[in-house]
Specification:
By secondary structure, the chain is an all-alpha fold. It is 83% helix and 0% strand. Helix 1 (3-15) runs antiparallel to helix 2 (18-34). It is flat.
């Protein structure tokens, strides 16, 4: 996960901003779904 996304998620959790948490979560899953299968295997250690 990119560091900028981790930082924003931590900030959203600290502020208990559910809307922002949901948005960032959706962004992460969208980003993950767009990665090629070979990159996903490499990142997950397979």
């Amino acid at each position: 996960m990119p560091q900028w996304l981790c930082n924003q998620l931590m900030r959203a959790f600290q502020k208990k901003d559910r809307r922002q948490i949901k948005l960032l979560n959706d962004c992460w899953y969208f980003y993950q779904s767009k990665q090629s299968p070979s990159q996903q295997e490499h990142r997950s250690g397979l």
